Amino acid sequence: MAHVQGADQYWNPVLETLPIEKLLELQLLKFKRIVQWAYDNSKFHRRLYRDAGLEPCDIRTWEDVAKVPKVEKAMMREIQRKDPFPYGDMLCVPLEQVTEFHQTSGTTGQAVYQPDTWQDWEWWSESWSYIMYAQGFRDTDRIFIPFGYNIFVAFWAGHYAGEKMGCEVVPGGVLDTEARILKMQELKATGLMATPTYVLGMADKARAMGIDPAQDLCISKILCAGEPGASIPATKRRIEGAWGAKVYDHVGATEIGAWGYECTAQPGGLHVNEALFLVELEDMDTGELITEPGKRGKLVMTAFDRQAQPCIRFDSKDVAEWADKPCPCGRSFRWIKGGVVGRADDITKVKGVLLAPSAIEEVVRSFPELSDEFEVEVAKKGDLDDITLRVELLPEDAGNRESVEARLVDQLRLKTNLRYNIEFFDYGTLPRHTLKAERFKDLRAKH
Question: Is 425 exposed, middle or buried (0-12, 13-18, 19+ CB in 10 A)?
Fold first, then answer.
């Protein structure tokens, strides 16, 4: 039985430690309620459900949940830019009740617009409060957020959750990286929120300024999002070593919300916020639900309490697997081992082998001789797949190239069952990123 620590470690101690049978009852009740809401108020959902021969009253048991049709991002793109403009007939509230606009980054196609009511925005803040409290953020923290949030949801909700919890929040959006580092130093900020790529980039920049983040700054907690990096052990170690701080991961999406988070127990994965979300794991080939640990599938998401544009059985394309034991933190929420390992549309076959880009990152970031930046490119050479890894040697290790290359090839073959062409670049010549890094390029479709 998991050891339950003091209730002060939980944002909502009742829901986070609810007995499993009670949690399942609550989830089924909330699932039926959001399906009924969408059916009654959204032309899109009503048409989708009727075409499937489904009425909300047909959902009585957990077995009935799988009868509800899934929604994909392409379906959302098709109905938007129509009346009520620009959201189309997925909208469940009068247009005048929409108070927040955000959109997806568009990295996988045309951006999807996301409307939220003020109640939805309060729900966003509540979701993030679970995350931040579980990671040790308290009202004594001064949190620095180095982003210009603009139309992407980014850390907007983290900002408001921090305020809701009583933290002092410093928005550093319009500053450049150097000015952000100096402001963090000046104000003695204790918390930081950013993508793993940018956190590493900030550390690199600080060192170039003669500032050691671990010694000269006061950051004790870093909340990462936007990329799998903070759930990849080698990347987490690299960030923690650079900053002298604890690094925590979180996962969410514009269309879904902030649904998963790492806690201070750090069991090696992310909790699902099962009080606010239903997360199903689906076999990528058969579509069957996976309930046992140790088998990867793609995540299908439902946000129970989001009303303007409901997220019901949304095919996230995120790939994960259930953990095989409860977390020692005492939460009854399930957790996914290793976090989100990638996206179903990123995991690809190369030379007949299934490859997840996160596996390459784990290897590269485990080499202290290499910088934080790398790129992977898959192309066709004749009829054969050809995979190239571009890395930067640190200046002090320039003489160790042959040794690094040999060990890198061996580790990549061991971890991914593939052989790579390794290209070394001078330190500082590969692109630097401030938001999500596009490190993996598959050029075979263009061949």
Answer: middle
